[in-house]
Amino acid sequence: MADPEMADAPPFDAAAADAQRQTASERLLARLQARQAAQRAVSPREYAQRYVREQESLITELLGSGASFDEVLAELSLTFAAIPKADLRHALGQLRERQRQRLRSREVPKPAPQSATPVSVTTAAQRVSTLPDLPAWADGSDQRADESDADYRLRKQFEGPPEARRAFIGEDKL
Q1: CA 152, 154, 155, 161 torsion: positive or negative?
Q2: Whether residue 65 is found in the same domain as residue 99
Q3: Which uninterrupted H or E stretch holds 93?
Q4: Residues in CB range of 131: below 8 A, 6 or more apart
Q5: 89 SS3 class
Q6: Does one domain contain both 60 and 94?
Q7: Which of 125, 142, 153, 170 is the most exposed place for a label (fewest CB within 10 A)?
Q8: CA 54 to CA 106: how far, in whole Å?
Q9: Is residue 37 within 8 Å of residue 29, measured between CB atoms?
Q10: How many domains does the chain fold into?
């Protein structure tokens, strides 16, 4: 099936495309260089921040292998003698803060502790009344706390009545 938009297009000329290839590459390179020039750092602090951001994965891996921030700072200050140590320290401090923020966002919030006296106690009969389409032998007494009503209904449909339960390999019949 032909694309209707391609029906009006002239036939592809590989030789012409190859001739235009060099021009396209030069234009893309010029655009990249212009964007990089616009993003050049204007201060040592800004340069340090950009460098640390660019090398964040490498620095993080180095820190994960046991190196301290002071060791990384010393290494960077030897390499970048023109950048004041305070600016490098500031850039590494921002890296440390980004790592802390990531760790905080990954932490799973802990559930609120339940009080010793429950606010409302539901019995099996109360739960069954809210679950339509349940067989008579399913009284809801074995519904788990983390199991939704739909999951409980589905489980009961698969399990069948207790008297029809078969022992599986490694299980004794109760």
Answers
A1: positive
A2: yes
A3: helix 85-106
A4: 140, 149, 152, 153
A5: helix
A6: yes
A7: 170
A8: 23
A9: no
A10: 2
CA distance 111 to 84: 46
Placement of tokens 């799973």 in the chain: 108
Domain annotation covers residue 56 = yes
Task: Tell me which residue has tokens 């893309």.
Answer: 28
Amino acid symbol at 22: Q
Count of other CB atoms within 10 angstroms of residue 151? 12
| pLDDT tens digit sequence for 9-36 | 788 888 888 888 888 888 888 888 877 7
pLDDT in tens, 126-145: 554 456 677 777 777 788 88
Whether residues 101 and 58 fall in one domain:
yes
Cβ pair 64, 106 in contact under 8 A: no
Same domain, 141 and 100: no
Rg (CA), the chain: 33
> In whole angstroms, what is the distance from residue 103 CA to residue 2 CA?
52
Quick one: the chain helix, strand, coil %, rounded to 5? Answer: 60, 0, 40
Please report whether residue 18 resides in a domain. no
Domain that holds residue 54: 44-106
Cα separation of 51 and 41, whole Å?
A: 10
Q: Is 67 helix (H, G, I), strand (E, B) or coil?
A: coil
> Are 52 and 102 within one domain?
yes
CA distance 18 to 139: 76
